[in-house]
Design goal:
9 strands, elongated, N-(1-d-carboxylethyl)-l-norvaline Dehydrogenase, domain 2, alpha/beta, three-stranded mixed β-sheet, 12 helices
Length: about 290
């Protein structure tokens, strides 16, 4: 099975733009489109297209980076219905939830397209640095075939399953853990501050003790202690991902007590501070009591 010779990318937003930029340096033609405006978002080495159909007529593999499940399914459907399509593989890097991934997979299978459920983690900064993690759920042969191009924008690639929905399940449980760590660490730091402790001292101790987590190791030292709040991941996205996690625990009949509480917190934060960097949840928790 030979590697693709023409690539496509649809969705040049906060995450997609940096990923497409890195892919465009891989050495293969990259045909790009974004409904919000392609020309101004096209990477320097990319080739701007006029529509989804235009990309589908040129690219054997198309990467998607889209805001939600309905949009992802609609774009997959448009590619599948394209009259001049040469596309045989769609790699969906979006976070859409297991149900939407399965629906997109069915749409693609009916058209003879291999749909890969491959959400990413690492935020906009990771996308720009080419260090994001990919959770690939799809045929292992396609995973192997696409690893060289994935390495252009991802430091860690994992084959997590064969079926659409499995990548999404891993992504939303990961983001639930990240969201929980941010909320819990915020509460813990605020309690410590009330007792006259210094935040840096607390972090130094926690990070060599059993309480260490992704927030204490990275977000607090780099984004909150510095008061930059620039992790590059928006509150709306975290609220969406945690809601997807909680809804899917309900559907799977697995425990969701913590998920329900965390989802409520992040929804409240996003309603209060829409468009905020997700690290500002620390300020939200601090100021609401």
């Amino acid at each position: 099975m030979s590697a693709p010779t023409q690539l496509g990318f649809i969705g040049l937003g906060q995450m997609g733009g940096p990923m497409a930029e890195n892919i465009s340096g891989f050495g293969l033609p990259l045909h790009v489109f974004d409904a919000a405006g392609t020309t101004e978002r096209t990477p320097a080495a990319g080739l701007a297209c006029e529509s989804v159909d235009d990309v589908a007529a040129k690219a054997e593999t198309i990467f998607l980076s889209l805001p939600d499940g309905p949009v992802s399914c609609a774009v997959a459907g448009a590619i599948a219905a394209s009259a001049n399509r040469v596309t045989t593989v769609i790699v969906d890097l979006s976070t859409v939830g297991p149900d939407a991934a399965r629906q997109a997979g069915e749409i693609c299978a009916a058209a003879g397209i291999t749909y890969i459920d491959a959400p990413v983690s690492g935020g906009a900064l990771g996308a720009k640095a080419g260090s994001i993690t990919i959770m690939w759920a799809g045929p292992e042969a396609e995973f192997t075939r696409h690893q060289p191009v994935m390495a252009s924008f991802s430091k860690n690639q994992f084959h997590v399953g064969d079926q659409p929905g499995q990548g999404q399940a891993l992504k939303i449980l990961n983001n639930f853990l990240s969201a929980t760590a941010m909320a819990a660490t915020s509460e813990a730091m605020l309690f410590g501050l009330s007792q006259g402790l210094d935040m840096k001292v607390m972090l130094d101790v926690v990070n060599v003790s059993t309480g260490q987590n992704s927030a204490s190791l990275d977000k607090f030292p780099k984004r909150i202690l510095t008061e930059t709040y620039d992790a590059g991941f928006k509150s709306a996205l975290m609220a969406k991902d945690v809601k997807l996690y909680y809804e899917n625990t309900r559907a799977a009949h697995t425990p969701g007590d913590v998920g329900g509480l965390i989802s409520k917190l992040w929804n409240s934060f996003d309603e209060a501070q829409p468009g905020s960097d997700f690290t500002r949840v620390f300020e939200f928790i601090r100021d609401r009591n």
